[in-house]
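User: Assemble these into one structure.

Assistant: Restating your components, then the assembled model:
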Amino acid sequence: MGSPLVEPRAPDDTSPETSGLVMIVTMGVIGLISAVLIVGAYRSTLETIKENKAAFLEKSVFEVLPGTARKITFGANGEELREMGEDEPREFSYHAGYNASGELTGIAIVTEGQGFADTLRILYGYSLECHCIVGMKVLDSRETPGLGDKIMTDPAFRANFDALDVSLNDEGKEIRNPIVLVKPRQKTDPWQIEAISGATISSRAIADMLTASTARSIPFVEQHLAIFKAGGKHGE
Amino acid sequence: MANDTATATPDIAIAATSARDENLEALTRGIWRENPVFVMLLGNCPTLAVTNSVINSLAMGLATTFVLVMSCMIVAMIRDFVPKEVRIACYILVIATFVTIVDYLLQAISFDVHRALGAFISLIVVNCIILGRAEAFASKNSVLKSSLDALGFGIGFTLACLFMGVVREVIGAGSFAGIPLFGPDFAGWSIMILPGGAFFVLGSWLLLFNWLAARRKRRPA
């Protein structure tokens, strides 16, 4: 109890100054060992993390598309759209949800963009019945705890995505009313998203991501509905 | 000469006992007497932010303990080779390496818990308990003693997180580690799960710890 735990060391102030080369070499060696350890950990956990992420994505698709019992992932390259495996290269992914009788419930789409702290990755569900977004889930976020991360927890913000209008114009090529962000308690139209007070940048990031993604994806989805619907039948 | 030999054996025995006592002391003091959260008030950011459930508290405690023990072990190993001018940068590099590893491990073991802890896993890098123990203890002591010290402080931090998490989850959500305790009619005191509740619970624990310390001082030896 009584003996000192911190053993005295010779005072450093009197020791001669270390050369810059020694400092660089020391940090370089430690950095190299760190890199090897990190790569080892990454490689050994990669497969399990991939499986966990796939299971999480499937669960998330069921959440953003109510009534979904099964999902099929389609990949798009240019105008080509077909069912694709996990590792096949594609420009965009579309996760089609089907109910127990194989009918299409909607399409879940992943999009990402710059948040306040880092890249935000979200999943939203597009319903074919109301032509609106019926659910949004944040998949990856490093937003400020207690502020920006309210995009995941704030009930008022989440209510924006119960029926967010993204219907197409008469030509079926553009969103009639692109999504816009409004200040808290100033939402008047179904295509508006109410920002979170104190987390405006994160709210704007979500709105901008959805605006860009829906402008590209919703017309594509509507044009390829037959392929999505057929997937539910032959996948049974 | 014979007299010298006779006194040498008890000296070795005393030194061994003393070393064992020091190791035991290094292990135990961080758990209670110098608890990093309730006594030294270190690492309050994750303590307040992620202790809204027992599982999150346990995961954060174990992740921090892993980083603490591994970092202090390595810092103690390299302490004689690292120039003093770059020692803090080297310690941070070591700590960041183990934080990255624990981040991957947690993603592989429990993706849900990893998501619940969010940015706080990465923020273990700047948890002052870790750099504090590396600089104040591991950089001046042996590998064994530094590892025991780090383990003690890690256990102390985990216990503190659990003390917070149990109170907050039981009162706030009416459950323990997700298992409902009071039936479906229980209306949780949800402020306890919110950040305000964390300050309230931490304050209450600090009050209790200070009261116990004051009572111990008053008690005659």
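Residues 1-8 of chain A have pLDDT under 50 and may be disordered.
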